[in-house]
Design goal:
The chain is of the alpha+beta class and 159 residues long. Helices cover 31% and strands 24% of the residues. The protein contains three helices and nine strands; from the N terminus they run ααβββββββββα. A five-stranded antiparallel beta sheet has the order 6-3-2-1-7, with no helix packed on it. A two-stranded antiparallel ribbon has the order 4-5. The radius of gyration is 18 Å and the shape is globular. The mean pLDDT is 90.
C-alpha cells in the first residue's frame, strides 16, 4: 500500500482511539461504506426524477445533519448529471411549528428544507414506494416546499 495512504490511515486510527468507542466504530464503518460507494457502486440504471422520493445513503454526518439511509426528495437533477440536489425526509412526520419543515400530505414524513444538499447519484439506493407506486409529492406539497425554499435560501439584504 502507498506510504501516504498508510500515514493517513494511521493518523485517522490514532484520532479514533481517543473518541468514544461507539462513535469511533460508526465513523470507521462509514469510512469503509463511503469507499465502497465511491469505488464499487455504479450510477443507478433506474430514472432519478425531480419531485420523486428515493432511498439514499447519506452516511454519517456531523452535528444535526441528516444521516444514515433515509428517504430524500429529488429537488433538482438532470439526466446527464452525476449529482442531484436532495431534501432529506424524516422517518416520521414532525408536526412542529417550524415554517421550514413541510409535513407531506400523503405520507408520514416531513421535508427538511434546511438540510438541502447536493449528492452524487452513487448515493441513491432505490426508489421509494408507497403501496407499490413510486413515491411522489403532491402539487400542494410542491408549492409549499418551493415557497419555503425561496424564503429560506434567498440571501438577506446586503448592507
Amino acid at each position: 500500500m502507498d506510504e501516504e495512504i498508510n500515514t493517513k490511515l494511521n493518523e485517522t486510527r490514532e484520532l479514533l482511539e481517543n473518541v468514544e468507542n461507539k462513535q469511533a466504530i460508526e465513523y470507521a464503518s462509514w469510512t469503509l461504506n463511503k469507499a465502497k460507494i465511491k469505488f464499487l457502486n455504479k450510477i443507478p440504471t433506474f430514472p432519478i426524477t425531480n419531485n420523486y422520493i428515493y432511498w439514499c445513503n447519506l452516511g454519517v454526518n456531523i452535528g444535526s445533519e441528516q444521516n444514515k439511509i433515509r428517504p430524500v426528495l429529488i429537488a433538482k437533477t438532470k439526466k446527464e448529471s452525476m449529482v442531484c440536489t436532495v431534501l432529506p425526509l424524516t422517518s416520521e412526520r414532525l408536526n412542529d411549528t417550524r415554517w421550514y419543515h413541510i409535513d407531506l400530505e400523503t405520507q408520514n414524513s416531513t421535508v427538511l428544507i434546511e438540510q438541502l444538499r447536493n449528492i452524487s447519484k452513487l448515493r441513491i439506493i432505490n426508489s421509494f414506494r408507497i403501496k407499490g407506486k413510486l413515491g411522489k409529492i403532491t402539487l400542494n406539497d410542491w408549492n409549499r416546499i418551493n415557497l419555503a425554499m425561496k424564503k429560506y435560501y434567498t440571501m438577506t439584504k446586503w448592507q
